[in-house]
Inverse folding.
């Protein structure tokens, strides 16, 4: 199985570090977020990884080259011309997955000890279009699932905006953890025509017709290293 790590973002919440560096190179106990996530994937025998780059792209490329991909086969998806967001970034790297049935997509700025092999096994057994890692934690935005863990919609609790694509009642809000297992069929189903778009928009445009499932990993360690204060917390969780 192959994987993509999304590392192109500006990391504005991590200023002032990201005024001069990409968020992928934030260090947690001496290891960058990028290194930690490449090594996380290695635990589950995933050694073929593509990383998209935009903000201070050359620093990421140099780090990968200097460290020989930390033992993985790491290649670059170049977005230096324009940042493409999560969906556009994935679509730009579609060629990398042409021979794969399923693949992993994950954000560079999350850290977890979630057993990814269990999530892959669940995805393989149920064969949805995608499986999303979620947990019961506070967030401003949630995916909404039914009692069978099928994605039905999305909600922003700050603005009150809600989208219910399957028109079901009693939906369960789950915070998305930035890890996806995706079937490669998705590339033929993406309806967005712009070059920049979000995977959230992709899933909401498809979930009424195709099954997208949730795997809850609330029992595992997890942190979104999105703000300077989260770095200190991450260093207590991940040695």
């Amino acid at each position: 199985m192959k994987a993509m790590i999304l590392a192109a973002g500006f990391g504005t919440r991590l200023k002032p570090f990201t005024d001069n560096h990409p968020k992928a190179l934030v260090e947690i106990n001496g290891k960058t977020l990028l290194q930690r996530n490449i090594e996380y994937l290695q635990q589950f025998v995933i050694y073929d990884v593509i990383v998209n780059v935009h903000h201070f792209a050359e620093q990421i490329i140099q780090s990968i080259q200097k460290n020989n991909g930390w033992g993985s086969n790491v290649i670059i998806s170049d977005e230096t011309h324009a940042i493409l967001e999560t969906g556009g970034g994935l679509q730009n790297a579609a060629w990398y997955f042409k021979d794969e049935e399923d693949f992993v997509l994950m954000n560079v700025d999350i850290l977890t000890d979630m057993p990814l092999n269990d999530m892959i096994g669940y995805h393989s057994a149920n064969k949805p279009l995608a499986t999303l890692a979620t947990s019961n934690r506070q967030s401003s935005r949630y995916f909404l699932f039914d009692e069978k863990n099928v994605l039905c919609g999305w909600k922003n609790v700050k603005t009150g905006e809600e989208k219910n694509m399957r028109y079901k009642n009693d939906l369960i809000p789950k915070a998305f953890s930035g890890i996806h297992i995706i079937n490669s069929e998705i590339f033929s189903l993406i309806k967005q025509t712009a070059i920049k778009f979000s995977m959230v928009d992709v899933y909401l445009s498809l979930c009424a017709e195709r099954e997208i499932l949730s795997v809850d990993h609330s029992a595992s360690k997890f942190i979104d290293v999105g703000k300077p204060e989260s770095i200190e917390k991450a260093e207590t969780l991940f040695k």
